[in-house]
Task: structure prediction
Amino acid sequence: MFSTEKKKRKTGWWVFLLILVVIFVGVRLYLPTAAKNHVNKVLNDLPGYQGSVDDIDIALIRGAYVVTNLRLRRRDAKTDVPFLNIPQADISIQWRALFNGKIVSEIYLTEPQLIYVFEDQLQEGQPEPETKDWTEALDDLVPIDINHLSIENGRLGLVKVNADPTLDIYMDQLQLTADNLQLVRSDEQNLPSPVQANAVTIGQGKATLEGRVNIIKQIPDMDISLSIERIDATALNTLTLHYANIDFSSGRLDIYSEVAIADGYLKGYLKPLLTDAQLIDQGDGFFKQLWEGVVGVFKFIFKNQSTDKVATKIPFEGNLDNVEAGAWQTFVNIVRNAWVKAFQENIDEDIEFSDAQKEADQQDNELPEDNP
Result:
């Protein structure tokens, strides 16, 4: 009798374990489908956009999931170009951060493309997602704070199809890394997170960005430097023809910039240098010849004869909702490059984060106090 009851209990435990295994296997098999349905719903809930993913693979052992072919585009877009296309996104727990008492994630994006098509994005009647919408969508897709971001072979583009000729400004082969975004490591600096990026621009320019940021703020603080060197000016002809009715037969463009943002106050400059530039004859029309003559005279007067460079330095400063560029100082810098001292092809290193912080603090002190 006791033996029979013991066998029944043993059989019951095996049945229970078998049911648990079946449930676990069933849940595991359904997880990718449930995750895919959830992600598709989140993407389609963004105002004015529709999106989808082809597949999601769950890796429970390493606490990760891999999203395949995430696409996001404007509803009723006039072109077939997705606004956002990510062939593969690997999102996982950053295990080494656990030793610092933080549960955070790391994201690896492979060949992502962000293409802004003016005709698709600037449609009347289409609702625009607010910052809150994008933030909530990101929280739904990645519920754990992002601490490390890596982009491999990305592409950024601006396209205006209806322009004559069509505008296509892009940045290819983008490599980007950003670390310590959620202050996993103790750091007393104002800007604890290093960011580095490089890319190849239109005209085969070599772009390099480096600096530090603090994204744990409503308006992130940053101290960034950017250089884009050796752009073939002829590759910019679609842009210069559209906006200035000039195009180049030769020339090289270098761009250098520094930007510091502290508590919403921005301070920086943009320094373009155009070397050995030659224009293409636009034809025999009176107005075309007149315009070419004006451009030619400007180029001759304001070119540094020893370096064959037309250059300036455009300063900008102010609160982010009211940034002002120094137009007069820009003109003075053109003259300075031509007749006083040529600008050098480098980052000037004269923008300090502490200067932006000082200006932000000064503006805070000047604000009137609320009456009790």
In short: The first strand starts at residue 49 and ends at 52. The chain has a mean pLDDT of 80.
